[in-house]
Design brief:
Order of helices and strands: EEHHHH
Low-confidence stretches: none
Structural class: mainly alpha
Number of strands: 2
Radius of gyration: 20 Å
Mean pLDDT: 89
Strand order of the largest sheet: 1-2
Strand content: under 5%
Distance between the termini: 40 Å
Helix content: 40-55%
């Protein structure tokens, strides 16, 4: 595979036009076996990066000083691919998995008997490296 554009490069593609992004060479049988999967991954990553870039640019235009991060659930098996696409688009990955950060939801707080008790319990098992 020879990529014809730089990673993260902005591409203006008028509706109905086509812009080559990569050139694939090799035996036709192997190209055809991986063609659909390869195309779907490129489209998925490009879409995530494009939307991330739009959000980051919009935030900058409005003098927002926070962090734009991808916080939603990802497709099984594509976590690293999706997170990388966020980075290419200029957004933060938020966390890599559930073990990267402590999150207390209403059911955790209720079962602990209140927010103070929930935070204390979380800190007791979280260690110093977790937020």
């Amino acid at each position: 595979v020879e990529f014809l554009l730089k990673e993260g490069e902005k591409v203006d593609c008028p509706a109905g036009s086509k812009i080559p992004v990569a050139k694939v060479t090799g035996p036709a049988r192997f190209i055809l076996l991986g063609e659909r999967t390869g195309l779907e991954l490129v489209v998925r990553c490009s879409s995530i990066a494009t939307h991330a870039r739009k959000c980051v640019d919009l935030a900058l235009q409005h003098d927002f000083h926070g962090v734009i991060a991808g916080t939603r659930k990802l497709a099984p098996g594509l976590r690293m691919v999706d997170k990388y696409a966020l980075l290419v688009g200029g957004a933060d990955t938020h966390r890599m998995d559930l073990s990267s950060m402590i999150m207390l939801k209403d059911n955790h707080i209720a079962s602990a008997g209140g927010i103070t008790a929930a935070v204390k319990a979380a800190k007791s098992v979280g260690g110093f490296a977790l937020k």
